[in-house]
Amino acid sequence: MASSKTSTLSLFAITTFLFILLSLLSYAKASETHHKKTSSPFEFLDHLKGCHKGDKVQGIQDLKKYLEKFGYLNGNTNNDDYFDDELESAIKTYQINYHLKVTGTLDAKTISKMEMPRCGVPDIINGTTSMRSGKKRGGHGSTHTVGHTLSSKE
Questions:
Q1: How far apart are CA 100 and CA 98, in angstroms?
Q2: Is the pTM of this model over 0.85?
Q3: pLDDT, tens digit, for every residue of 58-98?
Q4: How do the domains of the chain map onto residue ranges?
Q5: Closest CA to 65 of 79, 55, 54
Q6: For 95-149, how does the pLDDT look when each residue is reduced to its tens digit (9 = 90+)?
Q7: Which CATH number does 43-122 carry?
Q8: What is Dmax (Cα atoms) for the chain?
Q9: How far is the C-alpha of 145 from the C-alpha of 34, rounded, in Å?
Q10: Which of 8, 105, 121, 139 has its Cβ near the most Cβ atoms within 10 Å?
Q11: Cα–Cα distance measured from residue 117 to residue 110, given in angstroms and rounded to the nearest whole number
């Protein structure tokens, strides 16, 4: 009779162990799938690769909102899908701050940098950048600090 209880107890322990193991495996698989589906809130920028001044593309309005949120554009920006001079200038400033090739065009490296997760704090507040760089880019009373200037004349 004792061996019958031992067998039942062993079978129960094995069944419980297998149930826990299968539960952990399915949780790990579900977690892995969830992480693969999680995306950047800035993936809307992907289809704007290659855009430049003069283009009118759906989604540029969202790019303007992004650049406004992080201090590159002021609140008086045209909220349309037209890639204008002001947007080009904002992208150039962004590229300077992030040590990218300064083109004013939404190249792959610029878009990739923009899609990276951020804390939400603006890079530029009241015309002053929070970027850690040593040079100032002047002009019209600006105290905007940047990594390097666009040309030696600035």
A1: 6
A2: no
A3: 999 999 999 999 999 988 777 799 999 999 999 999 999 99
A4: 1-38, 43-122
A5: 79
A6: 999 999 999 999 999 999 999 988 889 999 888 887 865 344 443 333 333 333 3
A7: 1.10.101.10
A8: 97
A9: 40
A10: 105
A11: 14
